[in-house]
Write a structure and sequence with these properties.
With 142 residues, the protein is an alpha+beta fold. It has one domain. It is 44% helix and 14% strand. It has 4 helices and 4 strands. The strands form 2 sheets. The chain has a two-stranded antiparallel ribbon. A two-stranded antiparallel ribbon has the order 3-4. β1 and β2 form a beta hairpin.
Length: 142
């Protein structure tokens, strides 16, 4: 990492680094039995990938937190990002182009993101999946 005199330069570099690590994690294949034992099934490094991706979401959401001119559509209403638990709203912005409901956003934050990053677990009933679409690797929930 370079020395930066402005936050924006550091932010740009750190986001690129996080994207690089996330891409590595979702393209890595766990096939080495000496390293992964019974988990050497060809799967990806899903947990670290999602933690890094949620860090990116948190970071981008925090950039716009408190800016009442920046709003995201949720359930037909434009809402600003006011606090840390609302950083997840950025998923409905033009940067991600998702159309998640308030309930979905709250559930992702409470049941997945926080549990995943704070307890290294996923709640029962949630799974992580990855798939290739249009030459890019994506992570999702089902």
């Amino acid at each position: 990492m370079a020395i930066h005199h402005e936050k924006v330069g550091l932010l740009k570099e750190s986001l690129l680094e996080m994207l690089h690590v996330a891409k590595y994690a979702v393209t890595y294949k766990k096939t080495d039995k000496t390293k992964w034992a019974d988990n050497a099934t060809g799967g990806i490094l899903g947990h670290p990938a999602v933690v890094v991706l949620f860090s990116i979401v948190d970071c981008l959401g925090s950039v716009f937190a408190g800016d009442n001119k920046f709003t995201v559509p949720i359930d037909g209403k434009n809402r600003p990002i006011r606090n840390a638990s609302q950083h997840i709203y950025i998923l409905n912005s033009r940067y991600f182009n998702l159309d998640l409901s308030q309930i979905d956003l709250d559930n992702i934050y409470k049941n997945v993101r926080s549990t995943l990053t704070h307890n290294s677990l996923l709640p029962e009933g949630y799974i992580l999946q990855w798939r290739k679409r249009e030459s890019s690797v994506q992570c999702g929930y089902q």
